[in-house]
Amino acid sequence: MAHFGLFFNMGQCCCAGSHTFLEDKIYDEFVDRSAQRVKRTVGNPLDLNTEQSVQPTVFADVLDSMTIAKIFGPVQQLIRFTMLDEVIERANNSEYGLAAASL
């Protein structure tokens, strides 16, 4: 769902889920699975099994201070967190209106 929430329609949608906050205990496995997921969806745009004809991009180990953490677009940013209160504050630290989902 995290992959689909961003990359459907090539990430060109007003509520694309580019910021993916992940709890410490699942972070490393999620990064590995995300990297594998983006590799298997790219191909010939005329092939019905192809989801994207351009290469999706995933950034791991994103920190709040990084430029990539302050932009929205067709790049997935995997951001680690420890406590729920912390992630709520960090997710809301944006000048943009946000859509959110919890899995």
Automatic annotation (TrEMBL):
Q: Which organism is it from?
A: Drosophila persimilis (Fruit fly)
Gene Ontology BP terms:
acetaldehyde metabolic process; response to ethanol
**Cellular component terms (Gene Ontology):** mitochondrion
Superkingdom of origin organism: Eukaryota
Domain Aldehyde dehydrogenase positions: 49-101
Q: Which UniProt keywords apply?
A: Oxidoreductase
Q: What is this protein called?
A: GL24139
What GO molecular-function term can you cite, just one? aldehyde dehydrogenase (NAD+) activity
